[in-house]
Specification:
single chain, alpha/beta, 4-stranded parallel β-sheet, 6 helices, globular
Length: about 110
């Protein structure tokens, strides 16, 4: 998913935006020096990858996420790696999952102005 595609989905009630970074990254407390801004994309919910990977079944994933199967879910992290893993797990649990590969690294620059 590209930056432009993500911008078009923000605020869409049929799409969930999941930040799979740590809570400290999500809150802007843990900061990467390479990013001009810190925090998270508006409307995102924090669901760290570690919690997703602790799930032992697709049902466990669905209970953790709290959305019905088939829901469109967009995952992101800092540079797209953790969210890539999350998309695989979320897809396996029945979600229409996509990875915003630009992730926070791109978003923090694009939204700078």
């Amino acid at each position: 998913m590209t930056l432009e595609e993500l911008r078009g989905l923000l605020g869409d009630p049929g799409t969930a935006l999941i930040d799979v970074r740590t809570r400290l990254e999500f809150d802007g407390v843990a900061r990467a020096h390479c990013d001009p801004r810190h925090g998270h994309i508006p409307g995102a919910v924090n669901l760290p990858l570690e919690r997703i990977l602790e799930c032992r079944s697709a049902e466990d994933v669905r209970q953790l996420v709290g959305l019905p199967p088939g829901t469109e879910v967009v995952a992101y992290c800092h540079v797209g790696t953790r969210s890539g893993f999350a998309v695989e797990v979320l897809s396996g649990a029945g979600y229409q999952a996509r990875n915003y590969v630009g992730s926070w690294h791109e978003w923090s620059r694009a939204m700078e102005d």
